């Protein structure tokens, strides 16, 4: 199988990149093909701006172009094949990969800016959103369907804090909830099956023994990359949501919050 | 009072900037002082990297410096006063401002990369984290205490989707939960009192009447900027969390998830 690992850390010798290399080595040992996008090494441009869509306007300077409406410009450039070379190369890698791994340090409870900029720019209209039929009866292909359906995705996260601080009642908020905007909103949205994350806590204080233990656990996760059960997010078009409000069918669960969008492990009563 | 508005949209004529201007005009009419940080106009650098801490190493090229450990480098540069000029200027503005407003479009359920890069770089160790006593009995000044305590902060967000999709049972997840990593993890963490957000939905389809209504509502919010009750997040050092696990005291609430970190509106039983 083909795996793309996108990493976002300024230091080549960082824990993030050490774990990335552990993952890649294991995957290759198991016969998979691995490609990398090392965002810092590539000097990835983070900011969506008029320069991303210049080809739409015959290459004129963005300041001379009409008002920039990002979804419209993004969709027109995607349809015309005029997105910038760096973005098109990343989209091709996403189409090539059977699985995507995003490797990053948790900075301020989210991804580093350079990785958010990869999402903002690569996830163009027509590619990651605005996909499928939008009509009086259907709200497109998203949340379990879309361009990247049939593929798997997983986060490889290093966090500076203690695990207890990210627990169910920890002060930072539960890690699963902190990652929901990425798991559900970034990965499940364009179709990925999302695996449970691999998280290393107290990343700043990891000694050799703790690194070895983390590496072993990561190797196990890599061996199960295509067999581990994904997070059971509810599919938009699977019958669980009302149209067009896209709210959970009242008959399904009474819960609110992020957890309501994950199916129960037991079969549900009809 | 002094208000800093940080905005992140590539289009000067965007809804984000139109609403920013409505807010600034009202604040000035009420006698306040308003300053702006327009991240796109300033060409803000998003990526934390070795160049941010070059002065620590006598200006040598980052590739010739020791392994970059971001918290350590950030803390050393802050303590030595050698953070880059752009970062020091923003820290000075934050210290000047009695209130901070972050104005941005919701992209992939979070802030645009350029704004995340403002957080990642301006929130240095010693300024926004690693503040206060860290000992066997205290985990620093954070979550309600810290450098920015006594000040207020508020998000001004435009979202493309329908409000129902962001409701308590909407498919995107509740807006309050999606914003929790920013409200609690970015704003409350270094001390801000966090006001309820001002959110405009269906931002791509706003007609003149809807804009006028939104502008009126925003003016009302600006008039109440220093009187509106903040979100009642629990203070780390206010007695609600156990040390050192920093988990909620079992006697306080039985809830889990983000909502458990907000105090009940009614007085709690002891």
Please render the helix and strand layout as text.
The structure is a homodimer of 270-residue chains.
Chain A lengths: L1 E6 L7 H15 L3 E6 H4 L27 H11 L4 H12 L2 E7 L7 H10 L29 E7 L16 H14 L4 E2 L3 E3 L7 H16 L47
Parallel strand pairs in A: 1-2, 1-3, 3-4, 4-5, 4-6
| Largest beta-sheet characterization of chain A | 6 strands, parallel
CATH fold description of chain A: Rossmann fold
CATH architecture label name of chain A: 3-Layer(aba) Sandwich
User: Using only CA atoms, what is the Rg of chain A?
Assistant: 20 Å
Search tags:
30% helix, 6-stranded parallel beta sheet, 270 residues, alpha/beta, Rossmann fold, homodimer
Briefly say what this structure is.
The structure is a homodimer of 270-residue chains. Chain A is an alpha/beta fold.
């Amino acid at each position: 199988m083909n795996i793309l690992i996108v990493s976002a850390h300024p230091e080549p010798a960082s824990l993030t990149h050490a774990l990335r290399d552990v993952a890649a080595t294991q995957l290759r040992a198991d016969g998979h093909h691995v490609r990398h996008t090392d965002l810092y090494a590539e000097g990835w441009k983070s900011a969506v701006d008029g320069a991303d869509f210049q080809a739409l306007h015959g290459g004129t300077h963005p300041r001379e172009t009409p008002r920039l409406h990002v979804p419209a410009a993004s969709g027109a450039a995607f349809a015309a094949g005029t997105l910038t070379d760096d973005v098109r190369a990343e989209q091709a890698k996403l189409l090539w990969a059977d699985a995507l791994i995003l490797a990053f340090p948790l900075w301020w409870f989210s991804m580093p800016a350079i990785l958010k900029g990869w999402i903002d720019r690569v996830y163009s209209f027509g590619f990651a959103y605005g996909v499928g039929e939008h009509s009086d009866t259907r709200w497109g292909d998203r949340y379990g369907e879309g361009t990247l359906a049939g593929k798997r995705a997983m986060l490889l996260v290093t966090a500076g804090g203690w695990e207890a601080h990210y627990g169910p009642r920890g002060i930072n908020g539960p890690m699963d909830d902190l990652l929901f905007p990425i798991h559900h909103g970034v990965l499940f949205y364009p179709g990925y099956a999302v695996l449970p994350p691999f998280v290393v806590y107290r990343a700043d204080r990891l000694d050799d023994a703790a690194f070895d233990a983390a590496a072993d656990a990561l190797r196990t996760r890599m061996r199960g990359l295509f067999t581990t059960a994904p997070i059971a997010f509810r599919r938009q078009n699977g019958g669980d949501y009302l149209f067009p409000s896209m709210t959970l069918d009242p008959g399904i669960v009474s819960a609110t919050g992020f957890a309501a969008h994950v199916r129960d492990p037991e079969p549900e009563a009809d």
